[in-house]
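Record pair follows.
FIRST:
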Amino acid sequence: MIGIPENVSLSVVLPMHNEEDNAETTIRKCADHLPTVSNDYEILAVNDGSKDKTAEILERLSKEIPSLRVITHVKNQGYGAAVGTGQKEAVKKLVVFMDSDGQFDFREVNRLLLFIDDYDMVSGCRLERQDSLLRDLMGTTFNTLVRFFYRVQIADINCGFKLYRKKVLQQLDLQTPGAVINAETLALAKRKGFTLMSVGVTHYPREKGEQSGANLRVVLRAFLEIFQLFWRLRK
C-alpha cells in the first residue's frame, strides 16, 4: 500500500523576490504542516534581491521559527539562481521546491511524498492553472518547446512545486539563472537515468503581489535560455 515514507528528511526551498504580501503566510503554512510528515526538516527562504519588505519579514520570522534559515542574494539574480542556491544549501535527503506566491498549498506535499520511495523526482502538475490567458499561452508554448528540444515528456514542466532526492541534485551541473531551471533540471536528470513521476496539485489564483512571469523582458530571457540550454546540452 502506497503511503508517506517513514523518517522523512526534508528541506523546503522557497525562492522569493518581492513577496512581502505572501512571505509570512507561505512560511507559516510550511512550518505548521511539516511536523505532521517529518521529524527532520528545515525551511530555506531564498531572498533573491527583494526591494520591498521581504527581507524585514524574513529576519523577524527567523527569530520565531527555529527551522527557518534565510539566505540572501544582495542583487536579484533570477528564479533559477534562487532555486540553485536553495539546492546547494539544503542538507536533508529530500528537497522540495515551492513558489512563494500563494498559488500552491504546501499541505499537498503529501501527494508528492507518496511516490518518492519509487521515483527519484516527483513533479507537480497544475490540475487547473489559475493564470491569465497570456500566461497560459506562454506556458503552453514553453512546454511545447522544451518537450521538442529536450524530450522531457511531462505535461507541466514549469510547475513550481517539485520534490527531488538530494542525491539527484548533487549530480546535476545546473547553470541556468532564469525560469528554464526546471527544464534544465529535468533534462539533465533524464540524461543520467533518474526516474520521474508527475502528480496533480491544486493551483490557486494569485491574490497578492505582482507576477513577473508576464514581463516581456522575463519572457524573452526565458525563451533565449531554452535555446542556449539546447546548444549547451548538444555539446
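SECOND:
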Amino acid sequence: MISKEINEMLTRVGRGTPAGELLRRYWLPVSVAKELTLEKPRKKIKVLGEDLVLFLDKNGQYVCLAEQCVHRGCSMYYGFIEDGGIRCPYHGWKFDASGKCLEQPFEPKDSTFKDRVFQPSYPVQKLGGLLFIYMGPQPAPLLPRWDVFVREDGIHKIQVDPVLNCNWLQAQENSLDTTHTRYLHGEMMKTKGIPGAEYYLRSIEDYEFEQFRWGVIKRRVWVGENGEKEREVGHPAVFPNMVRVPQGQWHAMQCRVPIDDTHTMIFSKLFKPTTDGTRTDPEDPAVDYLGSLLTEDGEHELTSFTSQDKMAWETQGPLYDRSQERLGVSDKGIILWRKLLQEQIEIVQNGGEPMALVRDPEENHMIEFTLSQGQAEWAKKYRVNQTT
C-alpha cells in the first residue's frame, strides 16, 4: 500500500507532474509510420495529456506540432502542408518543423514579431516502422536501437492494441507481477478450453528480481508434474514503460504510452529470426491492429493473453487507488518498481538524468539483452540450461 499522494505522483502524466516530467525524458512511440502517406499526411494524437498533430511533409519529413495554433487556437490538423512548413488554416501563419514562425500574413512587413513566436513542437524519429517523439528538454538522448527494432535476419511485425481505458502504470506494473500468470492466464485458458494451459499451471518454486542497466529482470523457476525444473532467462521490465517478452516464436518489446491519466496506447514490436538468416527490412513490418477484445455484450472476451491482461488492468478502475490495496510477499517486484520510479522522479526533480537513457552512439548500434552474472548464478543453482 502507498499513500494517495505517492499514488498521484507515480500516475499523473501531464506537463509539470512528477511522473509526466520523468516520462518526457524518454522517446515514446506514438504511431505506426505507414499510417501517414503523401495522400493522407496527417494524424491527430494525444500523448501525456497533450493534443498533438503528426504531419508527413512534402519532403518526406515527419513533423509533430501542438494541435492548437499559438496564434488563436485553431486546429493545425487542418493546416496547409507546404514546402518548408505547415500553415495555420485560420490566418495563415506558417511554422517549420521546429515550431519557428516563418510567415505572418497581414503583419507589417518590417515586423520582427514572428521571430518571437514559436509553435510547440517535438522531434520525430522513425524506427522499426514506428514513429517516436521526444517531449523533454534538450539535448535529447539517442533513440534506443533495441534488437527487435533493427535486426535484419528475420521477420518483423507490429501489434497495435485497442486503447486501454486506464492509467499506464496499471499495465506497466504487470511486468513485475510474478504470480498472476497462473490464474489470469493458466486457469483462464483452462476454463476457456484453450490449448497450452498446462504450461502456465505449473508450480512456481522460486522467483527473484534483479535490477540492471535497463530496468528490472523478473525470473521464475517452474516445476513440472515430474519434478523437472525450468528456469526462465527472465522478462526484463525496461524502464520506464516497456517489457521484453517472448510471444510464441517471436521476441517482443511492448511499449505502454500514456495518452492521458486514464487512457494508454500499447504498441508491440515483434521479431522472429528466420532459420536460414534471410534478411528483411525492419522498417517495413506487417501491422496487426487488434479489435476491441470485447464480446457482443461488451464484456472482456478473455480468449488471449492480451484480452486477459486488458480485463485485469481496466477493472482496477481508470486510475487505480493504491492506497486501498493489500500487498503480500509475492508483490515484491511491484514494490521494487514503485521505489525505482520514486527514485528516478527525485533525480529528475533535482536536475539530474534518470536511468536507461542512451547517450553514447557506440552503445547504440544494437542493444541486446545478454545473460548477466546474476542469471548465470541462478542457472547454476538449479542446474538448468542458460538458453532463452
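COMMENT: The longest helix spans residues 332-349.
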